[in-house]
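Reopening closed ticket. The problem is back. First fold of the pair:
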Amino acid sequence: MQNAQRSAVKQSPRLVRSIRRYGKENMGIIIAFLVLVLFLSINPSTQPSFLTSKNVFNVLRQISTNLYLACGMTMVIILGGIDLSVGSVIALSGCVSAGCVVRYGLPLPVGLLAGLAVGLIVGMCNGLVISKTTIPPFIVTLATMNIAKGLAYVYTGGSPVRVVTKEFQFLGAGYIGSIPVPVILLVIVAIISSLIMNKSRLGRHIYAVGGNPLAARFSGIDVARVKFLVHSFAGLMAGLAGIVLASRMYSGQPTAGDGAEMDAIAAVVVGGTSMAGGSGKIGGTIIGALIIGVLNNGLNLLNVNSFWQYVVKGVVILLAVFVDYLRTQGAKR
């Protein structure tokens, strides 16, 4: 009993230091997030419904698929790359998962694993080409984006694959207690991603390769292996997002995920990850995804035209990139 108490005492200062370090590293975006929440909380047009538990869980459910993508995208961008294929992988994995259940009568776990496998395979293909060649990740993932999108349309014939079973719908639209299942998955994905980046050798290697690939190679890091694993993980997260989105929409749709890669990149950039590679945190990405989600929700509550919402999000991304530019220039001086 006394040993357990001593252990708790030792761990609590470490936890406090971690929380303080997290707050210090993400102070700017945390303040921006709190200002946005405060504005929407006191605005007469949004105040009645914004801070209700129903709306809070609705926002968390909506950002869940984006955050799955953003966790993988954070690693890719820290590595100095980009992945444009994740939106199309959402469509393909969702359609394949739904098709396995509806068309082939396979058990639900098999259908879910098939959707995850699709995402993983696409990610592995990206990682293999990027790690073994000098072709820029932008070009490689642009190609696989079109391939995955085309395969989704070929597989479905352009029509949704509808699934009406409650078991399939549980993953995207179900609850455990009063908490939506996608939100629980969101927490699990965020914890796993944070552990990879902060507590594992792979995480240290990702930062090293993103900061200076040549120096990382000379220090004995297998750069090709790191790139392969990171892009495979990003593909797996896209597969998970596709399954959850298909479950929430009760169907696998070839148009699902259109533009999802842009929202993921926006969350990563707003969260403070440098597009130049070598720096960034999963914690920042979580706040970035929350800012994007709350911003979308607030614009909807304010009845802002959907066309103008694209403009607002574009301005937010541009400001985030500009802040990153100023920070980089300041560090050089």
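Second fold of the pair, where the issue appears:
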Amino acid sequence: MPQQGVFTYPDIERVVFGTPFVDAVRTEADRLGKSRIYVLASGTLARETDCLSRLEAAMDGCIAGVFDRLRPHVQRDDVLEATAEARAADADLILTVGGGTPTDAAKMVCLCLANDTMRYEEVDKLRSISKPDGSILHPDLKAPTVRSIFVPTTLSAGEFAPGAGCTDSRAKMKQMFRHPLLAPQVVILDPEITTHTPEWLWLSTGVRAVDHVVEDLCSINLQPYVEGTARHALRLLASGLPRCKADPADLDARLDCQIGAWMSMIGGAAGVTKGASHGIGHMLGGTANVPHGYTSCVMLPSVLRWNQSVNGEQQAVVSETLGRTGEPAAQAVGDLIAGLDMPTRLQDVDVRKDQFQAIAEASMHDRWIPTNPRKITDPAQVVEILEMAW
């Protein structure tokens, strides 16, 4: 029987790449007819560079407010505070300038605005809940009417997805929220602005993008189109990241990485499922406060080793794409990560063994655990993977 599948194009109108972000934002805001723009920005960019002052000067009074106090892993309290400010400003567009935290926070603000969400407990009504069989229970949501433009400065590529992660600090768990219109109207890829991104953040989120494509290539439902885009994305990232490490001013290398990160999200649009590196990684962030990119650095090689017995042929494609034909994919990927001077073990990112059980139990609620190529049915198996990564 022929292979079957559905590719869903995300609700993104345009991707603008290689253009200075100030020029691109002005052009796109004019095209969309937006004049009350609320900005969610990286605190570092806001306080230590002139990026926002240049933007405000160019936008001729169209910036209705700026929120630059976001904490890592998108905390509910921060989202509600930013939502209240955007509501008070009567914002007609949410603009982000920064990494994955502003990106996911902006999606949450759009969702909260649309659903009149004002209190901490009300956010629960917006959650998507992963069930033990791998299905996802989505709530009945009002569609966002205030949309977004994203100017990413890292490589985790969440700007291309219609989902957001947000941490319930009371439960110490990162939770998922999803609506097709949480995807932005426009993504602007400007390599120059990324030169302000700390090296560890740029490179580690690049490994996050590598994680996207490696888990796609090893997925239980890989599609032919995705295999092609994932392999090219992996080539771009595996070449571009070391070049960025060698010369942080290499804008061609940075744009290669940005395009590789963009292409790393094609699998998600096609419904290609991820595995335990993503599933456990989500919980390392919310439960153990591990930075988003570092979760992939410390988990992906061990997950590959744990899965190798069931998807060795697919892992061989990863090795071949990395120019390491015949070698274990875990070794090839691990060497790429180590060559970037990224952490490679859980102990390198201050995860303690006494946290393993809590991480494992939380991971069982993530949507990507049921779709891991080697079946995971018990938290003890997650602990086994964590022990391998220790």
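Update: turned out to be a display glitch only; the data is intact. The radius of gyration is 20 Å. The domain at 14-189 is CATH 3.40.50.1970 (Rossmann fold). Please close again.
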